[in-house]
């Protein structure tokens, strides 16, 4: 993060693929920013002050000072990427000009990531790591669909001579897909099944902005677990995440029931 000026941007995040998208892009563009690390166990992302920033109570979100001098709230990871390049990348280093063929292609791939492979890999992770009981149908459904979607990415990268998803350069689409691919093993997926994807992933791992941004607001857990030969750390990591995920679902259900009762009274 550059310290050349007082940062206006605050990134609200925690260590997740969606959060990594924002921090990697901020590092790539060398934009000054501050970080607010949410505590999912303490449910800080559901507190009223944060719901004023992101009504959905998810991460990432950013606040910034807009061109009219007023604070603006940007949420949903794809929209955070879109906002940052539109506001801070006038030279189109990481995207393409409005109205160009590449611009439309870029946003097709970005929407594919946020609405397709992202949610399916997320569900593959949930049923593999968080749900106490094994549900074979759910495990097979989300695992195989995630593999199918990675096969779509594999086909695209296989025909790209420059080794990037859209056009001939590194863009926000590469950031979005890389952030998810970094957690593929946690979903039970092996990127080596997709040679072009695996080569692209390993190559981008050496990019300075990725090395730095992936470790915001704390070291990347899944990448670090690659060296866990005994499985002991993996088990602790899984137990920790299962606890807050299941408690969070219970709390959300309770809040909905309280809301329903309030509306009917």
TrEMBL record:
Where is each GST N-terminal domain found?
6-92
Q: Which Pfam families match?
A: GST_C_3, GST_N_2
Q: Which domain of life is it from?
A: Eukaryota
The protein's matches in InterPro entries, at most eight in alphabetical order, are given as: Glutathione-S-Trfase_C-like, Glutathione-S-Trfase_C_sf, Glutathione_S-Trfase, Glutathione_S-Trfase_N, GST_C, Thioredoxin-like_sf
Start and end of every GST C-terminal domain?
99-223
Give the family from UniProt.
Belongs to the GST superfamily.
What name does the UniProt record give this protein? Answer: Glutathione S-transferase, putative
Whose protein is this, by species? Aspergillus clavatus (strain ATCC 1007 / CBS 513.65 / DSM 816 / NCTC 3887 / NRRL 1 / QM 1276 / 107)
Organismal lineage: Eukaryota, Fungi, Dikarya, Ascomycota, Pezizomycotina
